[in-house]
UniProtKB/TrEMBL annotation:
InterPro entries: PHP_dom, PHP_domain, Pol/His_phosphatase_N, Pol/histidinol_Pase-like. This is Unannotated protein. It comes from freshwater metagenome. Residues 2-66 form the Polymerase/histidinol phosphatase N-terminal domain. It holds the Pfam family PHP. One of its GO terms (molecular function) is 5'-3' RNA exonuclease activity.
Length: 281
């Protein structure tokens, strides 16, 4: 069972890296991708938790913005965690998330909602990349809303008046950085339209030209027609097709292993990293 896209409490998931690895082992996951938003902070603990048959594909889900302002998530897997420019890129995005959160909180306060940055910080685990889910948790703690899900269907949605974006690399820049750090790039849930505006089928060529290796096709935020379109694009551009859970612990309904990648597609990806970087016990 191969699940290449999951989150821990080093971003907006709720399991520690150790808990996630243990759950994956219990479930029979053979290759686990750990892809916290804009950080590699969970890698060390995850490595120390490896035992038995599981293999880790350490990575990060990089927040990107196109020149047209479309939000894109790029999974980088198997890159060199000590690559200086990659770490700088991730750090710049994390830094930008703080003023962005202040602005969102300010907008809410101006609308009479009882929420503060202290509330948000109290909801963020130590060392976690700050994100809207922590604001959602703070709003739940305050009794403003009932769940993260409710938040994302309303006040925290990309279309909401409270939404503020943050600075981020373009998808092409992220792909180039992942590849120059020796890793492989897989675009995450590209047709997840409920989250906001999405890429057009014609945008994939330039990503492939930049070095994109794969497309996440089997994901709960894609319907069957969207998956079919993505499979056609992947075939045309000779890209690997992946499936993954995007597990977030209790933070989302997604369950670990609910979508998976085929072994041949994983091999296709792994063979394109600049060296063997899979972690084994
Ligand atoms: P941000 O990175 O701060 O813009 O927040 C976006 C993150 O919120 C995404 O990466 C998702 O993992 C998470 N998210 C989106 N929709 C939901 C939802 N319905 N419930 C929980 N988390 C969500
Ligand atoms: Zn997330
Ligand atoms: Fe994502
Ligand atoms: Fe994700």
């Amino acid at each position: 069972m191969i699940d290449l896209h999951t989150h821990t409490n080093k971003s907006d998931g709720t399991d520690t890296p150790r808990e996630l690895v243990n759950k994956a082992i219990s479930l029979g996951v053979t290759v686990l991708g750990i892809t916290d938003h804009d950080t590699t902070a969970g890698w060390e603990e995850a490595k120390q938790s490896v035992r038995g048959q599981i293999q880790l594909a350490l990575g990060s889900e990089i927040s990107c913005l196109t020149d047209d302002g479309i939000s894109v998530h790029m999974l980088g897997l198997l890159f060199d965690g000590n690559h200086h420019d990659m770490q700088t890129m991730l750090e710049e995005t994390r830094d930008g998330r703080l003023p962005r959160m202040r602005k969102m909180v300010e907008k809410m306060r101006a609308a009479g909602i009882d929420i503060s940055m202290d509330d948000v910080e109290a909801a963020r685990p130590a060392g976690a990349t700050l994100g809207r889910p922590h604001l959602a948790d703070a709003l739940v703690n305050k009794g403003v809303i009932k769940s993260r899900d409710e938040a994302f269907q309303g006040m925290l949605n990309n279309d909401s008046v409270f939404y503020v974006s943050h600075a981020a690399p373009t998808p092409v820049e992220a792909v180039r950085m992942i590849r120059s750090a020796g890793g492989v790039a897989v675009i995450a849930h590209p047709f997840a339209s409920l989250r906001g505006q999405i890429l057009d089928a014609s945008n994939f060529q330039e990503l492939a030209d930049a070095g994109l290796n794969g497309i996440e096709v089997d994901h709960r935020d894609h319907n069957l027609a969207e998956r079919q379109m993505l499979r056609v694009i992947a075939k045309e551009l000779d890209l690997a097709v992946t499936g993954a859970s995007d597990y977030h612990g209790n933070g989302k309904l997604n369950s670990l292993g609910e979508y998976q990648s085929a072994p041949d597609q994983w091999e296709k990806l792994e063979s394109r990293a600049d060296q063997r970087r899979v972690i084994t016990a």
